[in-house]
Amino acid sequence: AQKITQTQPGMFVQEKEAVTLDCTYDTSDPSYGLFWYKQPSSGEMIFLIYQGSYDQQNATEGRYSLNFQKARKSANLVISASQLGDSAMYFCAMREGPPLGWRALTFGSGTRLQVQP
Amino acid sequence: DAGVIQSPRHEVTEMGQEVTLRCKPISGHDYLFWYRQTMMRGLELLIYFNNNVPIDDSGMPEDRFSAKMPNASFSTLKIQPSEPRDSAVYFCASSSGEHNEQFFGPGTRLTVL
Q: Inter-chain contact A43–B107, Cβ cutoff 8 Å?
């Protein structure tokens, strides 16, 4: 079974609008972390935002926020006020196990976002 | 602060040749990871190190692949002999801290002809 599922291969959004990129995950571990990365056409992987399974509040970083619904096992990324520079591939990833000490990151297949002027 | 540094950025080689990819992690990070990205398989973890010691190499595809980390500031991923199916982007990432967010290098685009 897929650990991380991103069901939207591609998304379009108008500049200045908000967009939600979907991510669902599968784990039986009570402690886990969820990450979002951005990969622009230049190829580098840029860390955007992190949510821990025990965090009470949804994570936010500037225009990025993570809509964490634990019961549904979803961790959707919300980008507010889209900009042309947001056009990129976006990957959701999960770490299973407690934060301290490393655990493997499993990546989803990604969503390609295109922001239209 | 400098991020993760990888070299070369692009490598084109012929089948059967040895390829060495290099990585310098972020100073102070005690975990280092090697990933491979292809269209077919997405991002795959190949191997990771903690304090220069290989911890899990179960993602290394074959014996043709080997990785070393002789010190805290340098790691190599070697493919010998290379094959066309090894063509991919190889990322190095490093991590330290509570949440384990990994910071990626720019990647090495490898083409094996």
A: yes
